[in-house]
Amino acid sequence: MRPLRNxxxxxxxxxxxxxxxxxILFGMPIAQxxxxxxxxxxxxxxxxxxxxxxxQDIHSQAVTERLVASGYFTVQATVHSxxxxxxxxxxGQIKMGVIYPSDLGAHLESQQPVEVQFIADxxxxxxxxxxxxxxxxxxxxxxxxxxxxxxxxxxxxxxLRMLYNQELESVFLFVPGVMTIILMLVSAxxxxxxxxxxxxxxxxxxxxxxxxxxxxxxxxxxxPYVLLSMINTLLILGLSVWVFDMPIRGSFVLLFAESLLFxxxxxxxxxxxxTRTSSQQVAMMMSLMVLMLPTILLSGFIFPIExxxxxxxxxxxxxxxxxxxxxxxxxxxKGVGWAFIWQETLILTGMTTLFIGLSIRNFNIRLS
Amino acid sequence: xATSVIETHELTKRFGNFTAVDRITFQVQPGEIFGFLGANGxxxxxxxxxxxxxxxxxxxxxxxxxxxxxRQAEQIKRRIGYMSQRFSLYEDLxxxxxxxxxxxxxxxxxxxxxxxxxxxxxxxxxxxxxxxxVGSLPLxxxxxxxxxxAILHDPEIVFLDEPTGGVDPITRRQFWExxxxxxxxxxxxxxxxxxxxxxxxxxRISMMVDGEIRALGSPHDLKTQYDQPDxxxxxxxxxxxxxxx
Lengths: 368, 245
Known about the structure:
The complex is a heterodimer. By secondary structure, chain A is an alpha/beta fold. Chain A has two domains: 217 residues, no CATH class; 104 residues, abc type-2 transporter like domain (abc type-2 transporter like fold, 3-Layer(aba) Sandwich). Chain A is 68% helix and 6% strand. Chain A contains 14 helices and four strands. A four-stranded mixed β-sheet of chain A has the order 2-1-3-4, sandwiched between helices. In chain A, strand 1, helix 3 and strand 2 form a beta-alpha-beta unit. The mean pLDDT of chain A is 86. By secondary structure, chain B is of the alpha/beta class. Chain B is 35% helix and 25% strand. Chain B has eight helices and ten strands. In chain B, the strands form two sheets. A six-stranded mixed β-sheet of chain B has the order 6-7-8-3-9-10, with helices on both faces. In chain B, helix 6 links the parallel strand 7 and strand 8. The model of chain B has no long low-confidence stretch (mean pLDDT 89). Classes of the chains: A alpha/beta, B alpha/beta. At the A-B interface, helix 1 and helix 8 of A face helix 2, strand 6 and helix 3 of B.
């Protein structure tokens, strides 16, 4: 197996001597996990609001205090007219405006309907909806406290339990997604580039004229990337467990084995791409367009698959990343074992076999 | 006459309706420098790919180093060396690493790799740059290094695919001296080129036009036969009616 070791050794030299590759390989996972973990979050904390208090009584003050005390809002400005609120929206200083009517206290005490107005900046619809809902809930709570007996007798109370992620930490959603993207990127893009580079330089020809069998050449070139990807997996899992307190409720060995399977799926895609292209540029563009974009958009990582139109939902089934994200979530968050993920595993295995089969076919066509 | 080291009989390669190589028949003797000439697109590369086991012939027969090109490509590959027109060295590997890598993929034992590497570095006088990345070497040095690595495993035949492209005349001359030295040690040289002056260095040459071998013989014979002062004239006369260029 000396020739195989030779190729692996050479590939490691290539990787170690290419600073940019190294940076992509190890800098990106860390940067992405930290970015998604800290900066990008669905939760809202301390959104700036403006208050137009026409009531100026204990009730309006109490509601404002509660808004602030919830932690979701910070009073950025107290204003005296509606145009002022508009002005603050325009300059982007606030996310929401709150207007109390002058008859707030009187109506509350006489138990008449009362209107507190929330104005939100819907250029960001998700945030606007969330803010308005939070505000509405806080006002509703206050109202019920004031008149506990006034509750209609048949009101349905809803009780919420958020399973598997009780604090609704968004990092729990992002870690599986980022891990998937990184493994896809490193495994598929890097291998397709590494393989096409040999074609571009003409060294592939020399390797093919040598007694080395083509599968051995590819195996030798791919093994270093498997190792790197697995190191990356450990790095990402380590960060998510120790920095973001993400649990691994299921078996770590199973998680690792599934990651290895997904890495091999991605590698086989990378090999498939390299059999169809002969320049590094094209390989990179194809990896980005064919692999990265669908992985990010259609895997359920950012946009929920359930809310996609039917055709996109169907397409999402052929995205390997979708199945891998399901597997990671099942193992890490739900803590389930093999019995619950064997179907997803089987699908990934099937896809991998297909990709490898197609690669071999393309390779043979090219040789003949 | 010794048995030929390359022997083809009506070797043909078709891609769909296009006949890239059309029934070529020739023999190459051991230790011979055989020039394979032709314009771009004449079929030189395809013919060479069939002989090196990279491409399966459509029809005809081909024997390289005593093995059949259809069924024994693996045995052929062990006995040939190959240098492509792009020198095919790894620019981000050092001189020593490149030599060791190419020796390694031919399955030479580690001890032999080490001694051959040192010997080669000494012979090429590359001792001072042994740890330098190949990318920073001048073109001529890369070319010599590429040729030397191609014959490191002592092949019977070495295939050179336009080995002197983009190199200045002096370096080219030095390179041909290396080729002669290898041929003197009994290595058969199969070289494609489109530099007609270079073909004068070959023992025998074949001229390919439109996938066929139109002329075959020593440079002297061909010049006499076509009544031309140099090989360029021979080539122009043969290629005048080419359909592909």
